[in-house]
Amino acid sequence: MVLLLVIAFFVFAGIYADIMWFDQLGFLNVLTTEWIARIVLFLIGFVAMALPVWASIMIAYRTRPVYAKLNSQLDRYQEVFEPLRRLAMYGIPAVLGIFAGVSTAARWDVALTWLNRTPFGEVDPQFGLDVGFFVFELPFYRSVVGFASAAVLLSALLVIATNYLYGAIRISGREIVIAKAARIQIALTAGLYLLLQGVSIWLDQYATVTESGGLITGAAYTEVHATIPGRQILAAIAVGVAILFLITAVIGRWRLPLVGTALLVVAALLIGSLYPWVVQRFQVVPSQLQLESEYIQRNVDLTRQAYDVDDIEEIDYEAKTDTEPGALRADAETTASIRLMDPAVIARSFRQLEQYRQYYQFPNDLDVDRYQLDGGTQDTIVAIRDVDLEGLGDASTWYNSHIVYTHGYGLVAAAGNQRSADGQPVFLQSGIPSTGALGDFQPRVYFGENSPAYSIVGGPEGSKPVELDYPAGSNSTEQTQTTFDGDGGPKLDNAFTKLVYALKFQSEQIFLSDAVNDESQILYDRDPIERVSKVAPYLTLDSDTYPSVVDGRIVWIVDGYTLTDQFPYSNKVSMSEAIADSEGVAPALAFDEINYIRNSVKATVDAYDGTVKLYAWDAEDPILQTWQKIFPSTLSPMSEMSGELMSHVRYPEDLFKVQRAVLGRYHVDQAGAFYSREDAWTTPKDPTQPQASTLLQPPYYLTMQMPGQDAPSYSLYSTFIPEARGDQSRNVLRGYLAVDSDAGTEAGVKAEGYGKLRLLSLPEDDNVPGPGQVQNTFNSDPTVGRELNILKQGQSDVINGNLLTLPVGGGLLYVQPVYVQSTGNTSYPLLQKVLVAFGDQIAFQDTLDQALNVLFGGDSGAAAGDNTVDPGESPTEPTDPGAEPTDPGTEPTEPSQSTELQQLLNRAKQALADKQQALADGDWTAYGEADAELAEIISELVVLAGDEGSSTGGSDGSTGGTNGGSNG
């Protein structure tokens, strides 16, 4: 009893803690609604299973023959079973009822959505039923029928076992003798089971429009003309056989129901399996396109509708491949916003430049956002400086980990399109205390992606602060303390609450520590995605949340989706596989197929006090409307979103990835073209990954102007190449997909263009290189290779940043930042070069502005965002052999080789100094290394001198083309 009481108190502690957490956050009705639904469904499931099973056993026992003649084996069974009979008669139904109750309670969402269902207002083309029938009703009806079938089947088996044990069923030679009472009970049970099977088969015909077939999802020619009629016939046969069993209960003849059962089995094989196979093999396959066109068109239309890509704007794009001076003049705003800072690369730069203390941290992948600064939109790379308890080392005591180091401090933002003279990010918001262009805001981060499991904060008014706020200075050991003054978690204001949380977190210090007072609050479940998922269990959340400064607070913005896999005729995709790319790998096993998705909710989590707000972003979504009926008052209308919040929400990345996976094949809207797969596309592999990698290239956020737009807007884009045929795949560009991600700045009003999908389709005979081809060109170019080798000297690594693609200048411009990082533990990547490509021409310069000018004949007509950077080098000419110099009347200079010469001379000077120092120190190992370094430099100088001679000594001009030289 003591053990049971202890276990019960632990369970109660968890329940009570959940109540306090949800109540503090203002979403207690979500918890209570789910609990009530689970409890009610558990009781229904328990009774619906236990009662029929108990009644069946009891009836079979009470109607047993009084003087049954049993064989010796059954006598022994009865002797063993009789002392346990009462326990078995109640225990077996109870155990089965518990299992059934748990299974039923797990389907609480299906039951609640059925009770609160909302029509879609659209009908399926096969049965003419509202789509809501398939999404909300059919799954519920099939679950009920399946549960009832299981209960009846188990009852039947136990009835047979009980009757056999007590002699109501006897096997005598080849005969089976069944007592009258047992016959009636078994026949009625069998009839009820077959009646349920008839209902189940009838419901199965509706499932054909959501089942995946060999060609499409949904009922195709074979299903419509063979499977559906066959299931209707089988349902009628099953009901007929059920009636025969009911007749048997009266007349006592088993022949008719047994013959009927055999007929049902044969009919299931012939009508349910063989006939559809014959129709498919001998009627459909020879004339598949002609017979399936109607159903393929249904699949194409409804798939595009379900994934919200039916109103995509498709634009034929005749991409230019030749560069001309001034070609980018019309795209000046786009080129000025090209992002050079790769959020996946410069995280180490953030750590080295902005971490300050070992107890702070930055994530490995930074986020992209934008801010309205100086009258324009500035794309930024942002990250939270969060607390890192592992950095405390030996100081990682319970008091420090949960009382002192409670929060991170500050949001760090860097311009996406700028770099300093030495290649560092240009920070717009940085430092401790936080300063910069984003203005004044609450910088403390108590709720973040990497916050501690729990922290105890707060204290009486006037008490001495104990929470570390931030170090007083970069070179000072002084610290500034603070006391949390928000409402962020349950209060530990009595001994009982302290005991509850001491049990929850298995830490007696919560109960015993003097640092825990009546004003203390305990903060836990602090990850933004986790908090939103708990208060909105019906949402599937985007895998990436990002921080923004909104109305003087740091808030996390989370996108929520409503999904289903029951939309008629819509193609099913695995969501985890669709969103997997080089930024996130799919799980090994993915059982998350969907065929309908809407970004129905935008959620925010306050980084200071953890407040969660849910906004109905797509109020027209029937699934969201259904959940609003279930959890009323938990969602706020979009009209309550501030203008500043609107300026930071964006088109979610996971939704875009799912849509691009669908559009790879469903960009064609005609059945014939879809069937032939002659224009099927796929997302290219990430060219910056190792060659053997199969990871896809992720989409990127950029501010750019697409064809069909009047001005640049914050957009999310991806590219398409032809779908591979076997092991062969042409890495040429076939499509360019972009979506307008700018929701505007007006409070509560979504910008008119937000969510508009545009697809640029390139002609089949237009061989515009794809990302893989461009990356290969970069890697194999001799001039680029030589300069990269120079950058790699001195134990440095060269890192290729994300390869961006932009539709500018009438063609497609590729831009890739190149970073250099030394191999030391405290090193970080510096942006040193920029690679650009347009058509077959490339340029490799210190800045994007220089590279664009070189690529487009000396003057691109537009300025890049890094045009103010002056590393001290002049631009070189493009590496296209046919390029002309800016001024054909003068002899071109060779600034690139001059720069290489200067770099080699500088290295040689340092190597000589190292040799002299090693000689003075008597360090012969260092002397040998410096001497070897000097020899290598001399070899490179000899090679460079030979290159210069060849480029100036030719008479036909062909040898100097790499540097844009033509010798007249």
Q: Would you write up a description of this structure?
A:
The chain has 968 residues and is α+β, with helices and mostly antiparallel strands. The chain folds into 5 domains: 19-191, no CATH class; 336-526, no CATH class; 530-761, no CATH class; 773-856, no CATH class; 904-930. The chain contains 26 helices and 34 strands. A hairpin with a 7-residue loop joins strand 14 and strand 15. Helix 2 (28-62) crosses helix 5 and helix 6 (131-165) runs antiparallel to helix 7 (180-207). The N and C termini lie far apart (102 Å).
Q: What fraction, in percent, of the residue positions are helical?
A: 40-55%
Uncertain segments: 871-899, 948-968
N-to-C CA distance: 102 Å
- Give me the oligomer status: single chain
Number of strands: 34
Number of domains: 5
Q: Roughly how many Å is the radius of gyration?
A: 36 Å
